[in-house]
Structure formats: C-alpha cells, structure tokens
C-alpha cells in the first residue's frame, strides 16, 4: 500500500524504478542526464547562485489579483460587474454626438449663464440667516424699525450677498468647466467661512480701536493665486496666458479702476480677484467656442475632400469667403 500512503523513504527513491527494464536501460544510455539509482539528482549549486538577468531592474508585472478597472459611475469600485462596464459611455458623451454645431455653441453659452445665475443662488443660501432677520424685522420688529423699512437689517443682508458673491467668484465658482457637485459645495462652504472670518476680524479691529489697543494683524483671507501653468485644482485649467485688467480696452478699464480706487486692503484685493475671475471665465468661454469652430472647420474640410459636402457647408463657405 505504499503507492497509496506514499513512501517514507523518498530520499532513496529511484526515478526509473517503476519503468520497464528495457525502457530503463534505453533511458540510461541515451539520456544526457545520468541518473543515480541510489540518490535523486541534486540541483547544481552554481545554477542557484547565478545572478538573474536584470536583477537590478525587476520587470513589473500586472497584479493578477488586482480588481479590474471600472468607471467612476459604478457603485462597486472593487471590480464587480466589470464585464458590464466594458462598453459604458457617459450619457453626456452620447448626447453630445447627436447635437448639432448650433446646439453645442448654445450649451457653452448656457453653461456660462448658468454659472452666473448659480453665483446669486448660492450667495442667497449662504445669507439665509440675514434673510430671516429681515423677515423677522418686518413681522415682529418695532415701529422704529418698520418706519425705516428695516434699513439696518437690509443693509446687513445686502452686504452679505455682495461679499459672498465676490468670495465665490474669487474662489473659482464661476469657472465654466464641468466638475462634480461636491466641489461646488466645498467652494460654497469655504466662501461662507471666509465671510464670517472677515466679520470677526472687522469686529476685533473695531474693539481694539475703541479700547485704544493696537490694531491686531491677521493673515490674508485669500491664499495666493497659483502660478502660471499650474492649475488651482484638478477641475480648474492652468492659467497660461491670463488677461489682466490692464489688458482690457480703456473704456472697460476706467470704471473698474475707479471702483478699485475707492477700496483698500482686503476689500480691494477681493474685488480685484472677483473681477479677474469674471475675465478668466469669459476667456474660457471664448477659448471653448474657438475650439468648437476649429473642429467644425476641420469636419467641413474633411467632407469637402471626401466629396460629401453638404448644402450647409457650401452656404457657410460662401459667407466665409472660402
């Protein structure tokens, strides 16, 4: 029963013992490896010690146990149902293929207008407490407040709305590039934090002046802008050739500079950053429209070369003088 339970004397086992005697004699004569019937063949030591090629530069092999890649839209990032996601394409990409050139242009312009409208909506959300104070003033306030149309409360609310909008612009909320909604929420919360920090600093400065103490110094509210060629984050493109206020036409520069001259300190920096953010947002829209025009021209040229020029292409060429 040694064949079933295994032999306890494996070290002295003959590898050719169970073969036919004639076949065993043939293998002993013709095989380049001489078998020792008493001991199993030992592995040569020099082979084990020989250095492997490219030992200093190991070749990286893909991990077979790593989960297959799935798009971010999948709820199972561990690789489950990866075979179902192989042909997945985002809905926006599929819809964009069926849109006309005019629709693509309208999407870019509407995206910019939507961002501008979102600035106002988000600023109102951040100033909800000030809105409640105005409402309470009209419903529960005294006669003196009502006769003045709750001027103090309205003034506080208007300042909150204006400053929140400026902070949102300065932080890049006006950027027309697509990004996740959680990034917008982070910008919104950060703008609200900066506004209330500004109020706390103003209060501390007023108290110091009233008590005759030295005015406390605070770090700047806004961090330094990213250098040219460096994106602020993964959702904001790098600033390669930014347009400054001085690059605008004199007719546009004059009211902007006049407005900046009436401010100083943090207020001036915030206003300047908000203006530059609007300029950059407009530049982004112009660049995206320019890219779209180039793609349209390339598509028309390709159809013309293939002899598939449409009537619209001919009409467009006439108006363009080509």
TrEMBL record:
Residues 28-72, 209-234, 295-322 are annotated as: Disordered. Residues 295-312 have a biased composition (Basic and acidic residues). It comes from the Eukaryota. This is Autophagy-related protein 6.
């Amino acid at each position: 029963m040694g064949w079933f339970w295994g032999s306890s004397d494996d070290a002295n086992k003959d590898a050719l013992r169970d073969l036919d005697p004639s076949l065993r004699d043939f293998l002993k004569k013709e095989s380049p490896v001489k078998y020792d019937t008493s001991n199993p063949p030992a592995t040569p030591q020099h082979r084990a010690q020989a250095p492997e090629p490219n030992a200093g530069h190991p070749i990286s092999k893909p991990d077979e146990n790593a989960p297959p890649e799935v798009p971010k839209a999948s709820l199972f990032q561990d690789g489950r149902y990866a075979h179902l996601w192989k042909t997945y394409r985002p809905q926006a990409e599929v819809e964009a293929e069926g849109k006309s050139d005019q629709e693509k242009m309208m999407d870019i312009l509407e995206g910019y207008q939507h961002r501008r409208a979102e600035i106002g909506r988000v600023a109102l959300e951040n100033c909800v407490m000030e809105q409640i104070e105005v409402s309470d003033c009209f419903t529960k306030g005294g006669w003196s407040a009502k006769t003045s149309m709750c001027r103090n409360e309205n003034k506080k609310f208007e300042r909150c709305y204006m400053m929140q909008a400026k902070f949102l612009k300065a932080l890049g909320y006006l950027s027309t590039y697509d990004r996740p909604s959680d990034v917008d929420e982070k910008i919104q919360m950060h703008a609200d934090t900066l506004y209330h920090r500004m109020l706390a600093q103003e209060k501390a400065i007023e108290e110091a002046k009233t008590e005759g103490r030295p005015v406390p110094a605070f770090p700047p509210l806004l961090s330094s802008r990213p250098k040219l060629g460096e994106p602020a984050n993964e959702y904001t493109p790098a600033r390669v050739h930014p347009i400054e206020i001085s690059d605008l036409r004199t007719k546009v520069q004059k009211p902007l500079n006049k407005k900046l001259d009436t401010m100083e300190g943090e207020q001036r920096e915030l206003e300047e950053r908000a203006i530059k953010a609007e300029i950059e947002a407009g530049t982004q829209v112009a660049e995206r429209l320019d890219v779209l025009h180039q793609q349209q021209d390339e598509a028309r040229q390709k159809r013309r070369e293939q002899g598939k020029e449409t009537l619209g292409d001919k009409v467009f060429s006439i108006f363009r003088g080509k």
